[in-house]
Each structure stands twice: as structure tokens, then as C-alpha cells.
Predict the structure.
Amino acid sequence: MNFNPGKIGFGLALIVGVTQSSWAQTTVRLSDFKDPSKSWKEVGQVWADPSLPNSLFTDGQGSVLVNLPDKKNPGKDLVSTESYGDLELKLEYMMAQGSNSGLYLQGQYEIQLLDSWTKISPKAGDNGGIYERWDEARPDGQKGYEGYAPRQNASKAPGLWQILEVGFQAPKFSASGEKIQNARIRFVRLNGVTVQEDIELQGPTRGSLRSVEVARGPIRIQGDHGPIAIKSLEIKPMDTQAPSLANLTMEVYSGSFADLNELAGKTPVNKKSLHSLNELSTGVTGTSLTKVQGTIQIVQAGNYTLDMAVPNGFGAISIGSESASSLSSGRIRVEKNLSAGSHPITFFVSKPRDWTTQGFSLQIQENGLWPVQLSQPAGNTQTDSDPIWVDTDQTPVLRSFIEMPDRGKISHAVSVSSKAGIHFSYDLSTGRLIRVWRGLFLDATPMWNNRGNGVSRPLGNLTYLNSSSKSDPITGTDSFTPKGYQIIGDGQVRFLATTATGELTDQVQLLADGKGLTRTLKRTGGSSIEVPVLEGKSIKQIRENFYWIEDAGLYLQVGDKSVKPTLNSQGQVVLPFSSELTYTLLF
């Protein structure tokens, strides 16, 4: 594999480790995999019609990999020439309708890649699942075991690009070759949603390259089950060795301190050595400030970040020859380039109240290092409340504030759920569809916890339709006065408004098959206007009145074949609307 530190193009990119602490990047071709079969091709563009099973369509030559197995060219797995231990991985891929593939970490542990569109209760064999292990010696019905289903279905429709992110810790072995630590999935995120977390893998899953486990192994993409396309693959080795603290001593000063200058002339009331920061104990019953000195041992040079938090108190960190200038509350963050070796380090921990929790939190991070927790406060200092998730059976429709990426909060909004596991949010003040998602409904914790801020947040795979600062109504220059809404049935709501030219009804129906939603707009009076459907940069026609908005990650189907979507100057996909307009979004 030839390394080229230049920029990644639009095609496939495999990011491998040139240094142990950072991403390095190079373009990948099929030649970078071991003996790829003729079913794999390098193309410029790939797309699908979600109504056609096991079909992907391609055009041109480029760096998007696509697997199109058939009788003449049966599929074969891709196996990377490089081998890896601990890593973070990001895969952008597309499934054909009904297709099946898999991502094998070290060639051994499979994360399932599957067209799981519309699944309400996914299993271990669904998209984002950790596939089962297998034992033929077990009784029928029990041969598969230790599979892990994703927490929810965060999949997208076939033919839409999906993103899988994985954090993986390889098994560890002693010098004699004995396994001393199992492999572990730290996280799996599917389209931005955490679907697996902290899963210990007792052994290889079914279909592994070998029966024994290894410290390092290749990335393998299953190619013998069906069509799949790969737009990018990024791998970051997580092999930076963790720093440690040594030679720790502490000095304790009695009193309430909010400023380091107040230490001048003070004599410590307690001194002692520490083996770790978790042994911190002042020996003072009242308020105090503790100064901890020692060294941080850096095994590999890098840009390290230390995050410190003192519950209900103040803190400061100094590293090397620098001195801490002030005490801070909340999160204290220090970022510093450190060479390999030993560096002086000092922590200041101020407890200004008698009841302040003993100890503090300290975490260290680096680009190729899993976060290392070096200190925890004493006792249970967890302040996060149990999450408040909205039960769709009891509350299928919820009014709340909605946080927008580029325009603050929307105060007059409603979110609507369905039993099919798809949902949408609507801006009552403008008549705009804001967002759609698949999976669980809403987290209302910020809405109700403590004093609450009125915000609810989607729990599933979120797609924004109108996320920018544009807040004008769908009627454009025509006036728009909302008149409320009517709940018609499961996932069906009719929104009412008046304009200067007459009445407007906007009926949105989440489809019972879980594929998307249909919207029907009706108005009395007025000339034709352009209705913004969603934000997008391109429109590709798949078939008659059916379009792929690639960058938005949606399909648009127009009810009237004579009506064509266009792009306006504001980066929106718009449809002409006179008296009636019907369209469907599939996601």
C-alpha cells in the first residue's frame, strides 16, 4: 500500500496509521485488498431503486467500491492487506434492497450490514448488530449464541448512504501467547445513533477467518451475500500507550480559597505521599485547598488533553515549567504537546464549602488513545438524572421547543410518532416540516429535568429537512396564520392555517409500512408558489416521479407526474403548489 498524505477525494479512502497517535490518509484501490474477486468494481457513482431487490446501478470509473455478485462473478470477501489491533473505524456504505453484508474486525468479529429498513424490533442479525457466535455441537435452536441486537433501528432506506462508526479493543495476550483479555466493542454508532456500547466478545463470531483469536488482524468486508457499495473507510489505530502519574505528594491548606494568590504565606496543615489521586484525603474537617505535585510519564509524544472537574469547587492544572495562574470552576481543560519522558505536573483542588465532595475527576486523552480516567471523586457524585423518554403509546404527539443547528430554538413546534417507528417534527409558526427520523421517539429530559428548558430531542436516526436560518412560512410572501392541528390517527395529523388568499390545510401521514411519510397540501385562492420540501444540492431522477436527494439522504416521490422538483437559489428542493400538492419522503 502506497501512502500519500494528500487530501482524500470523493471516493473511497482508507485511513491507516503512519504515526501511532494520529490519522493518516491514503486513497485505497481494490489492489489494496488481497485477491479481490471480479464482482468488486471501482466506479464513479452508484445508486439504487429501493423497490428493486438486490440491485445497485453504477456509472463511470472512480474510487467508489461496489460489489455486484452474479452467477458469472460470484461474490468474495474483501480482506485488507493491513492488520490492526485497537482501532476506531468509520465506514460509509450503501445497501441494495434486501441485501446482506458484514464488517469483520480483525476478520473475526462481525458487525452486521443489512437492509433493515422498516424493522421495528431489530435482532443481532440486523444492521448494526453484533452477529452471533456459532457451535454446531449445540442442540438445534441453540447453535447461535452471544449475539447482540442494536438498541434500536437507526437504519436508512436501501440506496441511501449510511455511516457505521466502531470503537474496537482487540484481545490481549501474554508473552507466552495466552489470552489475558477478551476483545471488546467500545461502541457502535449507526447513522449517528449509539446502538451498541461496551460489549465484551468472548470469542469470534460465526464466519470468522480463523477459530483462534489474534492480537492483530485485517478488516474484512463480506462480499458473498449481496450487493453493497463503499464510499469511504477510515481507520484510526488506537495504539498510543497510556500516560501514568508518579511521585505524587500532597499539601493541604486550611480555609476557603477562590484565588491562588491567597496561598501566599500559608503553611500546610497536612502533607503526605500518594500512590494515586484516588487516595486524596485532606484530613481537614472544614474547607481546604489541596496541592498535589508529581510527574506525568509520557510513553509516546503527542498532543495530550487533560480534563478536570472539581464537584462544587475550584481547580487548576500546571504542566512542565508553566505555573497555574488562577482557580476555575466547572470544567478545567488543558491541552499540551508533550514529548516522551517525565514532566512535572501540579493539581490544585479547592473545597470552599464543608459539604463539598472529596476528590476530583481527571481524564486524559490523545488522538490515538482511549480516554484514561486518572481520578474520580469520592462517593456517588453522578448528577445526571435518569432519562425521561416519551412513551409513544401514552404520548404519541408532543409539543415542545426544538433546538435547530443554525437558528436557535423553535418555540412553536410539535413532534408526531407512529407505531411503525418513524417520526417527524413540524414548525407550527411557519408550516414547515423540520425533521424526520427512524427509531425511538423523544428524550424529554431537558424539557423536564431540574427547571427544564422546554426542549425535546429525537432518539433515532435524525434527518433535518429545514435546518438553516430560513424561517419564512411555506407560503412565501403570502401571510401565514396557524390555526392549530387535528390528530386524525396513528401518525396522521392535519395542520390548519389561513393566508391572505384563503384557507390552507396540511395533512402529514406517517406510512404504516414504516418507509416514510406522505404530505398533502391544499389551499383556496392565490397564484402558484414554490413550496420548500427540504434542503439539497442535487436531484437525481431514479424513475418516473421518483428522485434521490443524495446529500439530504432521502427519496422524494411526487404524486402528480407532471410536477417536477427543482433547486432554488437558497439551496432548497422546491415543488410548485397552486391548489393541491402531494408528495412522499422515504428515508
Remarks:
- Residues 260 and 326 are 6 Å apart (CA to CA).
- The longest strand covers residues 57-67.
- The radius of gyration is 28 Å.
